[in-house]
Design brief:
This protein is of the alpha+beta class and 92 residues long. It is built from two helices and four strands. The protein has one domain (2-82). 20% of the residues lie in helices and 30% in strands. It has a four-stranded antiparallel beta sheet.
Length: 92
Amino acid sequence: MKLKKNKPAYIIFCNISYSWVAQPGVPQKIFQWGNSYTHTYYTPVGFIDFFSNMGWHAFWGDDIKQRHIDPQSFIIVFKRNADTASAVAPHT
């Protein structure tokens, strides 16, 4: 898998209704693998939350701790952890 081989500095995950949102009956393997991979090798450095009234709010760095509302849709920006730069991803 190129993602594991190339070890990108950043990964962006979109949970938006017109993106790759999991639908009933759709295989969940990519979502499960992506969740495990990003939580093992990356740290969230940004959240962009979207709300039904078309409003949005972005949180970066330490401001992420202020994030307390559960949005309808969101984007997470992950940055690769320095201590895992040479690590091998778990095999799934």
